[in-house]
Amino acid sequence: MPFAPASGAEILRQRKPPRSSYAICRSGTLVAGIIVATSSAAFAFAGGCTAPSARRSSGIAIESHIAPQPVRVGAATVTLKLVDGGESAISGARITLEADMSHPGMSPAFGEAKEIAAGRYQGSVTFTMAGDWVLLVYITLPDGQKIERRINVGNVRDS
Length: 159
Prior knowledge:
This protein has 3 helices and 8 strands, in the order αααββββββββ. The chain is an alpha+beta fold. The longest helix is centred in the first third of the chain and has 19 residues, at 29-47. The chain is elongated, with a radius of gyration of 25 Å. Mean pLDDT is 76; it is low at 7-53.
C-alpha cells in the first residue's frame, strides 16, 4: 500500500483523467450550454428589431393599441390586430391578457380579448394603481401555435 500523508495533500495533487467529449455530450452539459447560448442570442436579436406595437412572430404581425391615451388607473381597452405573412387577417385565435406591475408584490390583473372583426381582437384590463406596468399577451392561433407578447405600459397615471 502506498504512503498517503494524513493531510490529504498527495490526494489533491492527483488529477482526474479528462472526460472524453462523448461523456460531456452524453451528460448534456455541453449540448445544453450551446442551446442556451444560441437561443439567448437569437431571442435578444429578434426582440430588439421591431417596434413593440407591431411585431412579427413566425411570419405573423401583431399590432396593439391601448386606450385611453395616456393610460390611466382603471379600465383600459386593449385592441390587437393579427395578420399572417400575406397580410391576411387571422380569425379564430384565443387571446388572454395579464397586466403586471413592473415591481414584485402586486397582484396581476387578467382579461380576455374577443374577436370583434376579422383578425381584430378587443379586451380590457384594469390598472389598479399608477406606475409602470407590463401587459403580457398570450395568443393561441387556430392551428394550435402559441405566441406570447410583452407590451410595456409605462407611466400609468392617476385618474
